[in-house]
Amino acid sequence: MFQITILLLYLLAAVAFALHRLPANAARKGTMATAGFVFSIAGLLSHGQSLAQLLFVDGNLAVSLSGAAVLVGFEMALIAVIAALREPLRGMSAAMLVLAALFLLIPGTPGSGAVIGWQMQSHVLVSLAAYGLLAVGAIIAVFALVQDRRLGSGTVTPANQLFAPLQTTEALLFGITAAGFVGLVLSILSGVVFVEDLFGQHLVHKTGLSFLALILFGVLLVGRQYAGWRGHRAVYLYLWGFAVLCLAYFGSRYILEEVLGRSWS
């Protein structure tokens, strides 16, 4: 019931931010923006409370599939609110809030409060933070792809106002990619150093897929820096990297926890 309330708050905020960007609502822009911030901040506060209950059991860190999804959704919603401080990005913020709401619906069993050291806690939190950043980048990549196609076809509708300038969108995408790449490097390194018995904890496949995603994001950044990659090539490479990362974390975790009844810890 609590998650339904958060979901509704995020959806209301998304609608308000989207309506704010449409020319037909120019006279009510201030009201729409205020409503968007009120609903999204209320959702964030409730989300944070739910997150604390899911992540910590008896004072110990317990990250289940559903808990990880709620954490990533929280990070996405937080970035959406920060992005909404810039008016041209409010249409994109609306999409982020919708996805953050959908993350609340991912099924999973509650985690158990295992006692782990600060090293493993750092690894888990850094990993999820990197995933959240790159998930935001996936939304931006889709926006860039749709916007590029609309510009190429000469389509001009009021919905164009939901998009920031393409140059701004692409610059934001590569900024997120760079930050997520650094986070992913730290995640993989901390996993190799701090995790004991990768085979026994069924983590080899996750580490391998994460490393493959890291390579794809690295190639994208190098291509952007030295060959000026942009447009479809850059967006598709990003989305492939993100798809591999999704498989590394959520796909592997779902199979282990929900199908095989095993745990990584």
Structural write-up:
With 265 residues, the protein is mainly alpha-helical. The chain contains 8 helices and 2 strands. It has a two-stranded antiparallel sheet with strand order 1-2. The mean pLDDT is 81.
Report the principal-axis shape.
flat
Please state the CA-atom Rg, rounded to the nearest Å.
19 Å
Describe the sheet with the most strands: 2 strands, antiparallel
**Which structural class best describes the helix and strand composition?**
mainly alpha
User: In percent terms, what proportion of residues is strand?
Assistant: under 5%
In round numbers, the mean pLDDT is 81
The residue ranges in which pLDDT falls below 50 over 5 or more consecutive positions are: none
- Total helices: the number is 8
Going across the major beta sheet, what is the strand order?
Answer: 1-2
Distance between the termini: 29 Å
Could you write a compact summary of the structure shown?
By secondary structure, this protein is an all-alpha fold. The protein has helices spanning 2-21, 29-55, 65-83, 90-103, 118-153, 166-194, 204-227, 231-259, and strands at 56-57, 60-61.
List the helices and strands and how they pair.
Elements: H1 2-21, H2 29-55, E1 56-57, E2 60-61, H3 65-83, H4 90-103, H5 118-153, H6 166-194, H7 204-227, H8 231-259
Helix pairs in contact: 1-2, 1-4, 2-3, 3-4, 3-5, 5-6, 5-8, 6-7, 7-8
